[in-house]
Write a structure and sequence with these properties.
Blueprint (H helix, E strand, L loop, with lengths): L3 E4 L17 E4 L14 E7 L2 E12 L5 E7 L4 E9 L4 E6 L3 H8 L5 E9 L4 E9 L5 E11 L15 E2 L1 E2 L6 H11 L5 E2 L2 E10 H4 L5 E8 L2 E8 L3 E2 L2 E10 L3 E13 L2 E14 L1
Parallel strand pairs: 11-20, 13-20
Antiparallel strand pairs: 1-2, 3-4, 3-10, 4-5, 5-6, 6-7, 7-8, 8-9, 9-10, 12-14, 14-18, 15-16, 15-19, 17-18, 19-20
Amino acid sequence: MVGMLTLGAWLIGCGGEPAEPVAETKNEIPEKCKAVHVDRLAGDWVLARGPQADVATRLRVFDDGNGGYTGWYTGGAFTKVEMRGTKKADEGVVLFVEQPTAEKQRKVAADAASLAVLHITPDLPSCALKVQKRTQNAGGKQEIEDKVEFLKFPDAPGVTFAWQPAAEYAFVGEAAKDKKKADAEITELGEPKPDVFGGTVPVGAFSDAAADGADSCTFDMDLYFDDQLAKEKVPAGEVKDGVRRWYQDWEAPYSGNHYFEIYRYATCGGDRKLLGIAGISAVLM
């Protein structure tokens, strides 16, 4: 059925138990597909597999104010990246290319990683985006990986998804509790150690308390597990030697790859401001 998606139960990630099922909902695409056009792509889009939405692959698009787009792309397995979109109006195409972090760019330059590219053609008759998923190497050469279809993201009452890429490290296990151990992992491995025993999983991050805001502010966090909001407004931990601790024990009795995110907030004078997002893809044993 053109223009209609159903969100039912799904499994996202590379192993373990499925996320909790979302109540079945439907999303009617606007009449005559008015939103499907190279000049009107802002909003949330999701990979369509028949009548169901595969929420592991999704794209949130923003107008950049200069005739182009920016976006957050989740390309499966909780991998979120920044994107920049360029319109080629004469061809009816928008080309989105990953904007890598400095760490990712080093891997691309060393031929140890590639950039995500989405070649998008709005398809008016089906109210869809025809998408060629590509990869791009350090030399700019692109390889087509898959040809798929995206539709507008359906309503999901009671479920909040994470869209924005995490720019900070989170840690699991003992390093989540101890800043010195966390620093040692970065020194030794270049990134947090991902493997940890499942069950009760310690997850934490650390920040410069002075940079977070004045002592008169209050600090809390929203916690996401496997891309879905799990807990809101959990108080941040203590400050020691100028470092604020953001810590939570998670009940995660699963095996396989799972993703933890900590959205850090400060509330000063009534305004709750996002300070940063820490994330880690952990292997639960």
